[in-house]
């Protein structure tokens, strides 16, 4: 029997209800005559404090509050891909059709997955009546999109004997496709199941992330790589490029499934993805990006309580595809808005604030969220490895990285792409500051690069970083004493650093060629610049040639080399070699003239 | 179960028991039946009527925020009526050409408006799946904007300014000159004045009258000496009309809202009266979401002809862009135009700090068929070169200009020319995008060709002026 109480108090998204004895923490409730969705976030005696996921305008004390008996859960099954959901998994396209309005009306209830649609189900042959199965075991497949073979699994925590399994055929998600007998009880199997969002899905074992998640973004892949199953944060003041970078990751990453959570950000940024992803091709498969993407939108003007939930809704879906054995990328823009939602809820509950009004459990919540990333051996048969990689934007007030959300996030992620306002002002994009960013995966992924790209990747990466670090020191000196006192090799550092910045690190997300670089191209570009650097270095050290002579002699081909990132097409990377040869030839002439 | 209050005629519920008054808030004893966010009418013993809304409500007490303020209200002799609806305004096309107060009542002596529809001023969130991405280039005739921070139809692009800077002149210039090329339709303007000085209001009114644009402008005015709580409603009232005109009447609306700083201060006042835990500098923790509920009411919608382009103006306290008001605004809007005191003092109009300014929707609005094929490269190059020049400029102040290399010196000349001829223009000067780009090439051609690595060779060949 479900709990039935009454509203006592309303304050913004918080509703306090009485006569709620028997209600459970985090239980979903229906609030008021319209049945607005809410979640219990505190219980005192028979009084429940409820976060309401929709606007509470017009609610009155005395209206009824009904328990549903269930925690906030999501539906997991075929039909997730290509959808756009709100923060509590309502499909926004369907909301639009049903309400016949351009606005999100409240009180609308719709199933997350289409009920009518028939999916072509193929059972796994080896299973017959009586096979032993357990949570995670794959019993069949459905082609969800051209890119995704959806693997239908026995829901977690179930184990028993397979009683029936339907033959190949077309089924909708409510039809029974089989059943498991567990402890003498028959549990029906369908193409979907539900899972509570606040509880991580079980897996067999966690592995070390050691394969890079190739993103096509040069400064990321080459300097601060992210691994499959890894965690990364991208903090930065407004307009520094968090969203563009996350869009880039969602677009170009070598992930099987991408989940994009727009958490308290702009409506148009979701629209942009909705318009662009069906048109743009996944560089790895050539198929439209939308065929591997799920969007979750709680834009900044949508109810705040659902913002807090949206993160969990997204990560639960990510785990679900991970369990199928896929590499999933989850990007959340912005985790700060999620943290602010936590703060607002805590404030309305009159909890004791810790730093800057955030509740004392902020750090543990952030940690729990990033903990749900990882590369795992999935539960059930057959053995398969899947991963959830998480990239979260952080929006520090005033761009100050010492504020609570940024500083706590730093503790729990292994990659830190720090965006820099000064770089953004000068339109050096991506504005990732190479002096303070880091990746704990740089060493673990180097094997992959050595094997698949070039054996000197590690050394060259280090060399590039050294030049950039040294440039920073040299610039300090210049600021004090000017350029005149500089040694020729320091002048070379300035020259090469500029080449690295303009010709390699800068990457225009909106240029059709520049936006994406596959690993070999990245390495070629880097090596080209280093080759030039080494040749000049030999010349100035051994032959006493000056940098100004060098720069004069090679300015034409150097300009070409810098432009190469957006002028040289992907299938013509040998052009870089030609330019380098041209430069080497000019340098040789310079040497001969000595 | 609590006692159900009786609603009288037209669903009105009455209480005469004001328990407490704190700042702009009344704590009113009520029977149940009062709704959250409900509109309230307060009748003073003098017979004066004010309005307010329910901010918090429990079984016994409603917290009412009084728009006109609580001055003169007593705990005795006051009647509080709960009107059974949220704050609504009647909207109609006839509101263009009229002047209203901050709550939407006419104050120009004209007839009352015959509403075609009543709308809740809080609006509702646009479904992201209903939005259409803004792409249509708006030519404002201002080079610093058109060339470097292009505005598109349906964008929300604020002006960050400071006391004494010419943000009003710039906003007026944009309102007057803005066109979408190839269309001769003018923008309808919805103007919301939030706590501004009478002078500033006069400036805009005169400007709209002189340009003959009055018939396309609806003004909602809350002046500095008027009650602060109304400021929380004024932008919402104005945007409610804007939404009606855009999505029901197919109009392209430009919403100018000034000054959002006054809005945020009113928000802080309510928050502290409610004794909420303050966020940064005393502003409430929910200010981000609150501001978003205003700024996000801009855009285009699939299947609708109209659009809302928002240009809020805000003054940065102490010219500090990291102050919570500009900071949170920047986190919500699609870029910002930042005015700079240094440029202003050097006589540059409009004193736009292009490096700090940004238009996030520019990329879809420019290029071949929209502006010109070289626009993308040109603006990238201008940014790269101008920021390098700024660095060299500060270096030159330390080590002396003479110690710079010949190329570096050219950067300084470039930057001077860029500010004097590209950014600088007259408040009456309306440049076409071609003129803007041609001036850009004049200044870029000061630099050696090999420095222009952001520009494709074919564009260099066509436009670069070899000396
Ligand atoms: N890689 C890039 N290439 C080209 N332009 C970029 C790139 N990164 C960022 N930009 C520019 O910077 C602008 C701001 O970037 P973005 O919207 O990602 O900022 P943000 O950090 O997400 O800001 P906010 O916190 O306000 O959401 C973009 O609109 C774009 O013009
Ligand atoms: Mg962003």
Automatic annotation (TrEMBL), chain A:
Binding, ATP: 236-243
TM spans (from-to): none
GO biological process terms, semicolon-separated: proton motive force-driven plasma membrane ATP synthesis
CDD domains: ATP-synt_V_A-type_alpha_C, ATP-synt_V_A-type_alpha_N, V_A-ATPase_A
Keyword Cell membrane: yes
Keyword entries, A-Z: ATP synthesis, ATP-binding, Cell membrane, Hydrogen ion transport, Ion transport, Membrane, Nucleotide-binding, Translocase, Transport
Protein name from the UniProt record: A-type ATP synthase subunit A
TrEMBL record, chain B:
Subunit structure: Has multiple subunits with at least A(3), B(3), C, D, E, F, H, I and proteolipid K(x).
GO BP: proton motive force-driven plasma membrane ATP synthesis
Localization annotation: Cell membrane
Family affiliation: Belongs to the ATPase alpha/beta chains family.
Membrane topology of this protein: Peripheral membrane protein
Annotated function: Component of the A-type ATP synthase that produces ATP from ADP in the presence of a proton gradient across the membrane. The B chain is a regulatory subunit.
Pfam families, sorted: ATP-synt_ab, ATP-synt_ab_N, ATP-synt_VA_C
SUPFAM superfamilies the record matches: C-terminal domain of alpha and beta subunits of F1 ATP synthase, P-loop containing nucleoside triphosphate hydrolases
Name of protein: A-type ATP synthase subunit B
Domain ATP synthase A/B type C-terminal: 365-464
Organism of provenance: Fervidicoccus fontis
Gene Ontology molecular function: ATP binding; proton-transporting ATP synthase activity, rotational mechanism; proton-transporting ATPase activity, rotational mechanism
Main location: membrane
Domain ATPase F1/V1/A1 complex alpha/beta subunit nucleotide-binding: 141-359
Gene this chain is encoded by: atpB
Keywords from the UniProt entry: ATP synthesis, Cell membrane, Hydrogen ion transport, Ion transport, Membrane, Transport
Residue ranges constituting the ATPase F1/V1/A1 complex alpha/beta subunit N-terminal domain according to the UniProt record: 19-84
InterPro entries reported for this sequence: ATP-synt_VA_C, ATPase_a/bsu_AS, ATPase_F1/V1/A1_a/bsu_N, ATPase_F1/V1/A1_a/bsu_nucl-bd, P-loop_NTPase, V-ATPase_su_B/beta
PANTHER family linked to this entry: V-TYPE PROTON ATPASE SUBUNIT B (PTHR43389)
GO cellular component terms listed in the entry, alphabetical order: plasma membrane
Classification lineage: Archaea, Thermoproteota, Thermoprotei, Fervidicoccales, Fervidicoccaceae
Iron keyword on record: no
């Amino acid at each position: 029997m479900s709990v039935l109480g009454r509203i006592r108090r309303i304050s913004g998204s918080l509703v306090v209800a009485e006569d709620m004895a028997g209600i459970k923490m985090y239980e979903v409730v229906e609030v008021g005559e319209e049945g607005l969705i809410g979640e219990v976030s505190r219980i005192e005696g028979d009084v429940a404090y409820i976060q309401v996921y929709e606007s509470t305008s017009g609610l009155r004390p005395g209206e009824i509050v009904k328990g549903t008996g269930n925690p906030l859960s999501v539906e997991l099954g075929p039909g997730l891909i290509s959808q756009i959901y709100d923060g509590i998994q309502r499909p926004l396209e369907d909301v639009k059709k049903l309400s016949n309005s351009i606005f999100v009306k409240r009180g609308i209830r719709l199933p997350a997955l289409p009920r009518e649609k028939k999916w072509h189900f193929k059972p796994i042959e080896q299973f017959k009546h009586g096979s032993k199965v357990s949570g995670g075991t794959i019993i069949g497949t459905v082609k969800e999109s051209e890119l995704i073979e959806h693997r239908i699994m026995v829901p977690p925590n179930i184990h028993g004997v397979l009683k029936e399994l339907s033959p190949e055929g077309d089924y909708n998600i409510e039809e029974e496709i089989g059943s498991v007998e567990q402890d003498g009880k028959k549990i029906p199997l369908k193409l979907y199941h539900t899972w509570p969002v606040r509880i991580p899905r079980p897996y067999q074992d966690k592995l070390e992330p050691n394969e890079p998640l190739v993103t096509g973004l040069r400064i990321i892949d080459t300097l601060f790589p992210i691994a499959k199953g890894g965690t990364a944060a991208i903090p930065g003041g407004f307009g520094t490029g968090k969203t563009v970078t996350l869009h880039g990751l969602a677009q170009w990453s070598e992930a099987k499934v991408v989940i994009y959570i727009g958490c308290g950000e702009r409506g148009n940024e979701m629209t942009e993805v909705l318009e662009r992803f069906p048109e743009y091709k996944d560089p790895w498969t050539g198929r439209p990006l939308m065929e591997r993407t799920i969007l979750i939108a709680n834009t900044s003007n949508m109810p705040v309580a659902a913002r807090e939930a949206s993160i969990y809704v997204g990560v639960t879906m990510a785990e679900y595809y991970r369990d199928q054995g896929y590499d999933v990328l989850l990007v959340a823009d912005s985790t700060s808005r999620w943290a602010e939602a936590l703060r607002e809820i805590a404030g309305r509950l009159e909890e004791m604030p810790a730093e800057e009004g955030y509740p004392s459990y902020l750090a543990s919540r952030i940690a729990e969220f990033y903990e749900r990333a990882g590369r795992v051996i999935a539960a059930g048969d057959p053995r398969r490895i899947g991963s959830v990689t998480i990239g979260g934007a952080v929006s520090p007030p005033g761009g100050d990285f010492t504020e609570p959300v940024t500083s706590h996030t730093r503790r729990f992620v292994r990659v830190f792409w720090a965006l820099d306002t000064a770089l953004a002002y000068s339109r050096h994009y991506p504005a990732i500051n190479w002096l303070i960013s880091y990746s704990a995966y740089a060493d673990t992924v180097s094997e992959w690069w050595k094997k698949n790209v070039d054996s000197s990747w590690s050394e060259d990466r280090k060399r590039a970083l050294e030049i950039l670090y040294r440039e920073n020191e040299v610039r300090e000196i210049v600021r004090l004493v000017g350029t005149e006192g500089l040694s020729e090799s320091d002048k070379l550092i300035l020259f090469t650093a500029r080449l690295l910045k303009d010709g390699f690190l800068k990457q225009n997300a909106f240029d059709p060629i520049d936006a994406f670089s596959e690993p070999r191209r990245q390495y070629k570009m880097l090596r080209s610049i280093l080759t030039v650097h080494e040749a000049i270095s030999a010349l100035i050290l051994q032959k006493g040639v000056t940098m100004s002579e060098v720069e004069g002699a090679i300015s034409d081909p150097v300009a070409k080399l810098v432009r190469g990132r957006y002028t040289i097409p992907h299938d013509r990377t040998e052009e870089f070699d030609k330019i380098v040869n041209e430069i080497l030839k000019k340098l040789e002439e310079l040497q001969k003239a000595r | 179960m609590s006692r159900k209050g009786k609603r009288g005629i037209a669903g009105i519920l009455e209480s005469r028991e004001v328990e407490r008054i704190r700042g702009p808030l009344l704590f009113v004893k009520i029977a149940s039946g009062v709704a959250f966010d409900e509109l309230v009418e307060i009748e003073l013993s003098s017979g004066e009527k004010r309005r307010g809304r329910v901010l918090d409500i429990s079984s016994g007490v409603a917290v009412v925020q009084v728009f006109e303020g609580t001055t003169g209200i007593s705990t005795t002799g006051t009647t509080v009526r709960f009107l059974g609806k949220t704050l609504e305004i009647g909207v109609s096309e006839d509101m263009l050409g009229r002047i209203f107060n901050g709550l939407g009542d006419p104050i120009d002596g004209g007839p009352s408006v015959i509403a075609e529809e009543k709308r809740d001023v809080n609006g509702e969130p646009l479904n992201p799946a209903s939005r259409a991405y803004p792409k249509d280039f708006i030519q404002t005739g201002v080079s610093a904007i058109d060339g470097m921070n292009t505005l598109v139809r349906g964008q929300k692009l604020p002006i960050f300014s400071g006391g004494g800077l010419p943000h009003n002149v710039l906003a007026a210039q944009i309102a007057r000159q803005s066109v979408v090329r190839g269309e001769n339709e003018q923008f309808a303007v919805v103007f919301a004045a939030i706590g501004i000085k009478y002078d500033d209001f006069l400036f805009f009114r005169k400007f709209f009258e002189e340009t003959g644009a009055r018939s396309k402008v609806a003004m909602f005015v809350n002046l500095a000496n008027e009650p602060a709580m109304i400021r929380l409603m004024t932008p919402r009232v104005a945007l409610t009309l804007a939404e009606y005109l855009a999505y029901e009447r197919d109009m392209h609306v430009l919403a100018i809202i000034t000054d959002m700083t006054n809005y945020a201060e009113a928000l802080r006042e309510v928050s502290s009266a409610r004794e909420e835990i303050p966020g940064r500098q005393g502003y409430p923790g929910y200010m981000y979401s609150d501001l978003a509920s205003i700024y996000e009411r801009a855009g285009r919608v699939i299947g609708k002809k109209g659009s809302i382009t928002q240009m809020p103006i805000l003054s940065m306290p102490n010219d500090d862009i990291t102050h919570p008001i500009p900071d949170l605004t920047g986190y919500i809007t699609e870029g910002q135009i930042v005015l700079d005191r240094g440029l202003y003092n050097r006589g540059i109009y409009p004193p736009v700090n292009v490096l700090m300014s940004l238009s996030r929707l520019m990329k879809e609005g420019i290029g071949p068929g929209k502006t010109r094929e070289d626009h993308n490269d040109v603006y990238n190059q201008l940014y790269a070169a101008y920021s390098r020049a700024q660095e060299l400029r500060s270096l030159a102040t330390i080590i002396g200009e003479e110690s710079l290399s010949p190329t570096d010196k050219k950067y300084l000349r470039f930057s001077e020319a860029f500010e004097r001829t590209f950014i600088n223009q007259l408040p009456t000067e309306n440049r076409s995008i071609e003129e803007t780009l041609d001036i850009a090439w004049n200044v870029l051609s000061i630099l050696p060709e090999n420095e222009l690595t952001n520009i494709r060779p074919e564009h260099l060949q066509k436009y670069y002026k070899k000396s």
